[in-house]
Fold this sequence. Notes:
alpha/beta, eight-stranded mixed sheet, 34% helix
Amino acid sequence: MFGCLLSQKVAQAVDEELMSTQGAFSIDQLMELAGLSVAQAIQKSFDVSKYQRVLVCVGPGNNGGDGLVAARHLSHFGYRPSIYYPKQPNKDIYQRLLQQCKNLNPTFVDTDQFDSHLQHETDLIVDAVFGFSFHGQVRDPYQNVISAFQHTHLPIVSVDIPSGWDVTTGPTKDVSFQPQVLVSLTAPKQCASHFEGKRHFLGGRFVPPALAAKFDFDIPDYPGADQAVEI
């Protein structure tokens, strides 16, 4: 297990510092790097010839933005992503990410198609619904999605944290699914100590060493030009 696990409060502070005047990252840049990390972790974990049909479940916030970026890269990597995006914000950043995906002609799944598509046209699921800021109960239109994660036998790749988990204590009485792959972003969150899946990756090859030192977490050695490293 990674040496330091971030609390929700510290994770928020790290993101704020990355996007501060000193850090100088835009949210667009961080989503691009995060989504590329997720796509690379998938490419390392799932042979495209066996897991070509990837259903990307996209939430309404930044975690969903990471998922849209991942879907775009997966398309370029030879996978066939389909996208379930039931609640699409009007913010320019999400609309641009969505258009970038549309330019590659993926399948967009409607709510009434979700269950059938999952059962018959999917080899792999990407959970990009909720990030570390989520708290409380899962509400519509995502209850059916999280329920599907609970019951499916398909492999799941979760972006940063498994959606619906408590960021501190992990699985809850209502949401306890275990993804096969977890891709932590920047640094693993405290709930990662409860991850029991097969592979855990980190996508954080954008963190300055001084920032990692300030918040007391490690930057691992990334192989070659990779943006994701297994930890």
